[in-house]
Amino acid sequence: MATRLKPPFRADHVGSLLRPQRLKDGREEFLGPQTAEAALGPHDSADLRAIEDDCIRDVIKMQESTGLRTVTDGEFRRRSWWLEMVMTWDGFSATREGAQSPFGWKNEKGKQQDFSSLFINGRIGWRESAVVKAFEFLRDNASPGSVPKVTMPAPQVVHCFMGGDPAIRESVYSDPDEFWEDLVAAYRQEFAALVAAGARYIQMDDVSIPFICDPDYAEVFRSWGASPEEYLSQYARRINEVVDGLPDDVSVTMHQCRGNREGLWAAEGGYDPVAEVLFNEINVDGYFLEYDTPRAGGFEPLRFLPKGKVVAIGIVSSKNPVLEDADALKRRIDDACKHTELDRLALAPQCGFASSIGGNPLSEDQQKAKIERIIEVAGDVWPDAN
Question: Which residue, 185, 239, 362, 374, is the most exposed by fewest CB within 10 angstroms?
Answer without folding.
Answer: 185
